[in-house]
Amino acid sequence: MEFTEVVKTRRSVRSYKPDPIPDAVLARVLEAARMAPSANNVQPWHFVIVTDAARRARLGKLASGQTFVGEAPVVVVCCGKRYRDHYSWLADNMYVVDCTIAIDHLTLAARNEGLGTCWIGAFDHEGVKGAVPVPKGHDVLMLTPLGYPASSRAFRETSARKPLRDITTQA
Ligand SMILES: Cc1cc2nc3c(=O)[nH]c(=O)nc-3n(C[C@H](O)[C@H](O)[C@H](O)COP(=O)(O)O)c2cc1C
Predict the structure, then answer these.
(1) What separation in Å is there between the alpha carbon of 158 and the centre of ligand 1?
(2) How many domains would you assign to the chain?
(3) Which range marks the domain in which residue 28 is found?
(4) Which residues line the pocket of ligand 1, CB cutoff 6 A?
(5) What is the pLDDT of residue 51?
(6) Cβ–Cβ under 8 Å, residues 56 and 21
(7) Which of 101, 106, 119 most suits a substitution to test ligand 1, by most atoms within 8 Å of the C-beta?
(8) What is the pTM of this model?
C-alpha cells in the first residue's frame, strides 16, 4: 500500500475474524517492529506472540475485560527493559519511547497487510506478567490483538483529530 494511505486508514480494530495469520505475513509485521529506531540503538523491546486460545482469553480478561483482545488469532504482548540513558532528561524511562516507536511500526505494518490492531494500555500489569512468559527484567508496556477485521469497513479515514493549526507553532 501507499504509505500515506497506510497512515490515514490505520484504525483501532475491536472485532476480529478467527482466521489465522500466515507465517510470512506475521514475520513481515514483526520485522517492521525490529527495524524501529531506539536511543543509542539499545533495542530494549521484546514481543511475546500469544496464539494459545486460553491464554488469549485470559489476556482479554486482564485487559479490563476487553474480551475482543482474545478474539484475534494473535495477541502481541509488547515488553520493554528499562535502561539508563545518560543523554536524556528521561533518564531510565527512554525504553518507553523506544518501545512505543516499535509498536507503532508494528501497527502500521499490520495495516499494510490488511491486519487490524488496537493499542491496549488498560491491563493488569502483574496479571499479564503471570499469564505469559515475559522475559526477566522486562515490563509489559502494551498489548495488541492482531488479526483480520470482522468488518469490511474497519479501515476508514477519521476526522477525529485536532486541526494542524492547533498542534503546531511556527517559530
Ligand atoms: C497508549 C494507548 C493506549 C490505548 N489503550 C486502549 C485500550 O485499552 N482499549 C481500547 O479499546 N483502545 C485503546 N487505545 C486506542 C485509542 O482509543 C485510539 O487509538 C484512539 O481513540 C484513536 O482511534 P484510532 O486508533 O482508531 O485512530 C489506546 C491507544 C493508545 C495510543
Answers:
(1) 14
(2) 1
(3) 11-149
(4) 11-12, 14, 66, 118-122, 158
(5) 98
(6) no
(7) 119
(8) 0.98
